[in-house]
Amino acid sequence: MDPMIVTARLAPKVVAPLVKKLFVREGPGAALVDKPVRISGLLSFKGEKRTLGERDVRRLAAKLVERAVTPPDDGAANGHERPVAADEERAVTDALARTLWALGEIDMDVAQAARLEAADFARQLCRAAPGATRELTRDGTELHAILVGTASLHILHFFTQRAAFVPRTLVEQSRQLADIGDTLGALSDRLPSRSAEDAAFEARYAHDTAVLHNHLTIFGIDLAHSPDSWPLDATYLGLRCEAEPRSADGGAAPEPAVPAEQALCGLSRILIRGVAGSGKTTLLQWLAVATARDELPASLRRALHGRIPFLLPVRRFARDGFPSPGTFLAAVGYPGAEAQPPGWADRVLRAGRALLLVDGVDEAPEDEREALRRLLRDWTALYPGNVWIVTSRPSAVRADWLTDDGFAELSLAPMSREDIAAFIQRWHRAAAQQEPEDLDCLAGYEHTLLNAVRITRDLGRLATNPLMCGMLCALHRDRRGYLPNGRKELYDAALSMLLERRDRERAMGTTDGIDLPRQPKIQLLQKLAHWMLVNGRSEMDRAIAVDTLAQHLPAIPDAARQGGPEEIYRHLLNRTGLLREPTPDTVDFVHRTFQDFLAARATVQRHDFGLLLNHAHLSEWEDVIRMAVALARPDECAALLNGLLAPRPGIRAAEARHRKLLAAACVEHATELDPEVRHRVRRFTRDMVRPSTAAGARALGWIGPIVLEMLPDPAEVSEGEAYLLAVTATSIADDMAIDYLTGLRKRTDLGLRTQLAGAWRRYDTARYAREIIAHLDPDELYFPVADTEELRALRRLGGRPYVQIAGRFTAAELTGGIAPADGLKRLWLAYDLGISMEWLAAFPRLELLMVGSRLPRVTGVPDGVHVVEL
User: Which of 821, 858, 820 has the alpha carbon at shortest distance from 841?
Assistant: First the structure.
């Protein structure tokens, strides 16, 4: 049975009149009733004035079932078979009648019921009729659930129409029902492409997609007798996205980072940028699983409900090119690829029913990315109506790379303080569920780590994405509360933990007869990482990996005497935690960051700095070169930085600029560096850190805190340049930026002031409030608050007339936190609070409510408050 087809048959114009018969008509005196009205008092088959009996309710149920199971009389038989057999239809009718009759048993008044979501009310109704579905098959039970859910939605809509009994908070249910016709219309447009064979395969594919992708590796919880993979739905940390900042024109305040599902709402073509480890792949996994299971959040349900997800990692296609639709499933290694009906994927795309998740454009060689862009352009034109989400590292493709093809651009935001705290807490909860030997210590580890990342600047800078945050959790636990400083030390410690200490300290014996020390393991892993680097790949054939190990084993006696290349390969795969086999014939590193770090180690050991300099203009080599600077000796580090600054034949002007900025970014990673070289880097790049565009200003942020030392004196620049300098400085998520921003806080330009106000949550709340927020001219400026700490800080400053809500709050937190109450004149709602707006009555001078462009319509707004939807 296909739920989408059944649901499409239950149009409101069919169901509403039938459901309405279950209730008595509203009499002329109803409006005078001032007491809660019980559901049982409105039923036409209860009480003294009943008009329906049990047989009548069964006849209504039979009509609903008949509507749900009868194919349309349009001559198109394929894909429209009846979902259950004839005798099963009678059983479903009996079960539905029993369930509807149970309306009289629900001890709830109309107002209480109407506050529920339709799904919640349906559960209440089913609980009131226990055992109604006991005799049904699986398909019959599913059909019953669809019918009860649809009926519940119409019942709640009926309640919202009884205005005398239901408060204004219930208007949202009416809007939800009004939208259902549009949603079903969109679904019905997709139905004709489905044959019975297609529908059966899609049910299997949806189930398999949820199983294959519903896992998330929480780094470091890979104990000897515990899984290293956890259910995605239990461990997924909601990621946040932010749109590309607007220009200063008009002084519009920047939209804050919002949950990914809210940012994606209403978009059908999206390019998402994110640094290594920021969660790009995890986000696409979550979207694939949620779509396959039909467990989408409300904000995405209308756009993605009923779609077929295709998760397409670009790294899988680096060698053979991007696959055609017919080979999507085979190319990603889906086990059931051969079972798909001929031409199925093409039919799905032509019907506009697909969700295409193209992961990691940066994984394609640079000279092939333009071909991929042309392919995306052709496919979006050839297959309209589908949803496309593409991810990439920020520097791998230029700004507006896909804008001309209708793609919106979003960026995964760094983890906020709340995100980091939530991740640490969830990580330790997951570890505790395994009942480890250190269970009694985990609560203490969690507490001390939460304090450490809050008060230690270096740790706070490192814990900005899920990968690094997970690594900190694992190392902190592994070292019983001690953490290394700096990125190089962090990776060295992680390798030590994964390759040596865990097995040894847990007294774990060898499982394959091989016992390699840490250093030989690193040497061998470096060979694989170096091969991938040189060949521009992020995965390699299993056979090539074994052959690469065979070439180098003779030089590593500790490994050679314990097994051949095949045995050593299996040992590295199973015991290091750094390798995985995405398909039976390929191998890659669990994360690109480890590959880059090990490749940098191999390159430095080989003294192959010429290789790095030859490729320094390529974005995929940036992290390798940064790590090489951190690993190199002082003289090697100086030579590498000088090489980045030196002219190079055949290098374009933009590439030369990129190399110089990379040199500036590398300086902070150098443990020891000749002062003359450091001065030379600054001299060569000083004029390059005066950006002329907002995009260029943001691009300087990846250099890091060192750029702050090279920016011009803010007191000596024009208003326009001051705004661009503010963009650059606020792109550096380090409290060192606050010292520079103090030189801009007295400027009057609205665009500059909104840039400074919008950057608040990237820094220490109290300090930023004291040194920046308190000094900004409040005229026409919206001050964002994203958490209770910022709300309290703004209150301590005396409040502000214009406030932007940029995070989740309760009504009580806002009415108690925005003070003075009579000082608030305008409010910008940039975050879906999920509550009605009656609480705004607490602010007597509020005149304007602005609602973000991707938020649902607000309800309960007090009279006199003008609402503007952006």
Answer: 821
